[in-house]
């Protein structure tokens, strides 16, 4: 599985994905920081990468259908989360991913749970 980390994640998060054996790139790797959500979505679709983001806009499945991408993961953290909490949420996601592949779905990762939006 291939992932693209949005600009709200840095090298520490990228390393967590690499340590888990995943192919991961960041928005910074391709100098896409500041691009529109639509453009980032198109890049992820073209590269067949699952987007991992803090941007709740990507939870809009009518605007960003996860079935056209390789999935979308929205990390939902309280306002101004610390690095430790973000890493905890990423680890929670990676642990769940071992048990169940994401497919072409929208996953909302919150503290203690993951909500999965099934395509209708």
Structure description:
The chain has about 120 residues and is of the alpha/beta class. The protein has a single domain (about 1-115), classed as Rossmann fold (3-Layer(aba) Sandwich). About 30% of the residues lie in helices and about 20% in strands. The protein has three helices and six strands; from the N terminus they run E-H-E-H-E-E-H-E-E. It has helices at about 10-20, 35-45, 85-100; strands at about 1-5, 25, 50-55, 70-75, 105-110, 115. It has a six-stranded mixed beta sheet, sandwiched between helices.
Compact summary:
With 120 residues, this protein is of the alpha/beta class. The chain has one domain (2-117): Rossmann fold (3-Layer(aba) Sandwich), CATH 3.40.50. Helices cover 31% and strands 22% of the residues.
Keywords:
alpha/beta, Rossmann fold, 31% helix, 120 residues, single chain
The DSSP helix count reads: 3
The tally of domains stands at: 1
Mean pLDDT: 91
Structural class: alpha/beta
* CATH domain topology: Rossmann fold
Strand order of the largest sheet: 2-1-3-4-5-6
* CATH top level label: Alpha Beta
Low-confidence stretches: none
Share of helix, binned: 25-40%
Give me the CATH architecture, please.
3-Layer(aba) Sandwich
Would you list the SSEs in sequence order as H and E?
EHEHEEHEE
Strand content: 15-25%
Topology, number of strands = 6
If you compute it from the alpha carbons, what radius of gyration comes out, rounded to the nearest whole angstrom?
Answer: 13 Å
Largest sheet, if any?
6 strands, mixed
Distance between the termini: 23 Å
Overall shape: it is: globular
């Amino acid at each position: 599985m291939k992932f693209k980390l949005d600009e709200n994640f840095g090298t520490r998060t990228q390393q967590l994905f690499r340590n888990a054996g995943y192919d991961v790139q960041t928005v910074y790797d391709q100098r896409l920081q500041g691009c529109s959500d639509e453009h980032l979505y198109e890049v992820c679709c073209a590269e067949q990468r699952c987007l991992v983001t803090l941007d709740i806009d990507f939870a809009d499945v009518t605007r960003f259908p996860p079935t056209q991408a390789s999935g979308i993961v929205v990390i939902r953290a309280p306002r101004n989360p610390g690095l430790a909490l973000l890493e905890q949420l990423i680890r929670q996601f990676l642990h769940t991913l071992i048990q169940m592949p994401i497919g072409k779905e929208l996953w909302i990762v919150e503290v203690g749970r993951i909500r999965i939006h099934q395509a209708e």
